[in-house]
Amino acid sequence: MSASSRIAAAPTPRPSYRISDLAQEFALTTRAIRFYEDCGLLAPKRDKRTRVYGERERVRLKLILRGKRLGLALSEIGELLDLYEVRRNEKAQLTAFLGMLAERRTRLLQQREDIEVVLAEIDGIERECRRRLATADRG
């Protein structure tokens, strides 16, 4: 074995991000990122007083924002993230996520139905108001 083949390859450095890097990438304020940290959803390492975010935090932030877009509560998002962290079990995480999505769909469908009822009521009231205005103009 030659000397050059015995030299271990230097580990490739893991990417790290400053809070401002992530804020810019995801169009967030640094305050929002610190809020997610306060909620226990992110756990950056510290270098003295500076937060150092790794790829794990970047991915978690992406998942947090996806969950928010879907209308999940931060507590629900935290449950999903924790499921994967604790068990490293994608099946459990996906099963829980499907349950949350089904609940969210049910709530949204109910809201849509409620909105349609209110819109129909507005249409009826609007027609009645226009009819009464037309009658008042004639009289």
Explain what the structure shows:
This protein is 71% helix and 7% strand. The chain is built from 6 helices and 3 strands. It has helices spanning 3-6, 19-26, 30-38, 55-69, 74-87, 90-138; strands at 16-17, 45-47, 50-54. It has a 3-stranded antiparallel β-sheet with strand order 1-3-2. A hairpin with a 2-residue loop joins strand 2 and strand 3 (50-54). Helix 4 (55-69) crosses helix 5 and helix 5 (74-87) runs antiparallel to helix 6. The longest helix has 49 residues, at 90-138. The protein is elongated and about 100 Å long. The chain starts with a helix and ends with a helix.
What is the CA-atom radius of gyration, in angstroms? 26 Å
- Based on the coordinates given, report the CATH architecture: Orthogonal Bundle
The strand line-up of the biggest sheet is: 1-3-2
**Head-to-tail CA distance between termini:** 108 Å
Number of beta-strand segments: 3
- The parts where pLDDT drops under 50 for at least 5 residues are none
Name the helicity range. Answer: over 70%
Number of helices: 6
> Can you write the helix and strand succession as a string?
HEHHEEHHH
How do the strands and helices of this protein lay out in sequence?
Layout: H1 3-6, E1 16-17, H2 19-26, H3 30-38, E2 45-47, E3 50-54, H4 55-69, H5 74-87, H6 90-138
Antiparallel strand pairs: 1-3, 2-3
Helix pairs in contact: 4-5, 5-6
In short, what is this structure?
This protein has 6 helices and 3 strands.
